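To the wet lab folks,

You asked to see what we're planning to order before we commit. Fair enough. Below is the target structure as tokens, and below that is the sequence we designed to fit it. If anything looks off to you, flag it before the synthesis order goes out.
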């Protein structure tokens, strides 16, 4: 009985040592006035906001800017840090797992987040934080993710009616709103799943070990960035059948996600997809700043992103730059400096 406790103690001690070993970096004077703004980004280990941070940093160099990337200003932190011109939080175990072991000791000037998260932060629907009404859009970069739902082939599941009719013991990954909406649509409750011997809320880690029957979510993609890699890995490791949901159910799920739209997944997006599937998709990563960002700086940022947008094709995610959408992010206001640039080049009329 002592051995498991010893292993746990070693792991905890290792985590404490790792956290205590984090390094705060004094980057000197920062800010737009010295052309050394700090950008809320993410890890450089394939994180989308991390590689977009690298992209922006490189794009701004020809204009004399030296952008400093905050690698642990990810998840929900970015909008609040930018809004309050605050310092990055301490590193945590998630940062360490992503390979981030240095924290920038300087206030954050601008950042990148998902299109939906920027809108949520602006409207106070982001984890009850905000509203951050002083945030302004600089540019929206398209970045498609798909909503997919798949079952292990050996389960024989091709729709949820079969689960209810047979009272199947199924292990379901996650318990997000979309999955709960699906279960409700078919008259299945979480209690039913448990009564039938199944399990809700299976972790991704357990799923990768084979402890799952059904997986769903909005992050499906063939890319191996940390947020999507499990879809690629599971589809390669296990034989999956990808389900197609009724249109009225997809509409219910779309109503829960402000940025969802009807799309069609193409054949062979992932191993196991042998037909086109009508489903939902989400797209958009937003580069944003505060309303007090100097107009010239916002102009330079918008221009640099545009002029270097050809470099987007070399990153992990499938990023694209669309002149018709780059200046839109729901109703989050566009910074006047960015608007000036988009009007000059004719993207806005």
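Sequence we intend to order:
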């Amino acid at each position: 009985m002592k051995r498991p406790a010893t292993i746990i103690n070693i792991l905890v001690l290792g985590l404490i040592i790792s956290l205590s070993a984090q390094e705060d970096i004094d980057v000197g004077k920062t800010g737009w006035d010295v052309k050394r703004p700090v950008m809320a980004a993410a890890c450089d280990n394939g994180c989308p906001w991390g590689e977009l941070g690298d992209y922006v940093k490189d794009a701004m160099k020809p204009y004399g800017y030296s952008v400093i990337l905050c690698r642990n200003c990810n998840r929900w932190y970015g909008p609040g840090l930018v809004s309050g011109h605050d310092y990055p939080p301490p590193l945590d175990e998630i940062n360490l797992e992503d390979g981030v072991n240095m924290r920038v000791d300087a206030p954050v000037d601008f950042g990148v987040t998902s299109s939906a998260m920027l809108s949520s932060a602006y409207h106070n629907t982001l984890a009850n934080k905000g509203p951050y009404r002083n945030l302004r859009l600089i540019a929206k970069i398209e970045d498609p993710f798909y909503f997919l739902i798949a079952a292990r082939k050996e389960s024989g599941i091709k729709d949820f009616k079969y689960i209810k009719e047979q009272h199947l013991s199924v292990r379901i990954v996650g318990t997000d709103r979309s999955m709960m909406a699906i279960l409700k649509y078919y008259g299945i409750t979480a209690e039913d799943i448990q009564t039938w011997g199944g399990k809700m809320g299976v972790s991704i880690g357990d799923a990768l070990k084979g402890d799952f029957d059904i997986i769903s979510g909005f992050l499906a993609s063939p890319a191996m960035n940390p947020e999507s890699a499990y879809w690629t890995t599971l589809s390669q490791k296990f034989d999956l059948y990808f389900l197609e949901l009724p249109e009225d159910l997809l509409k219910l799920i779309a109503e829960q996600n402000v940025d969802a739209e009807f799309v069609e997944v193409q054949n062979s997006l992932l191993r196991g997809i042998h037909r086109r599937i009508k489903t939902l998709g989400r797209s958009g990563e937003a580069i944003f700043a505060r309303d007090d960002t100097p107009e010239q700086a916002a102009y330079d940022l918008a221009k640099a992103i545009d002029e270097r947008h050809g470099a987007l094709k070399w990153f992990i995610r499938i990023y694209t730059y669309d002149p018709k959408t780059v200046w839109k992010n729901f109703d989050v206001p566009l910074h006047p400096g960015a608007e000036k640039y988009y009007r000059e080049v004719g993207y806005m009329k």
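Structural context that might help your review: DSSP finds 13 helices and twelve strands in the chain. The longest strand covers residues 135-152.

Thanks,
Computational group
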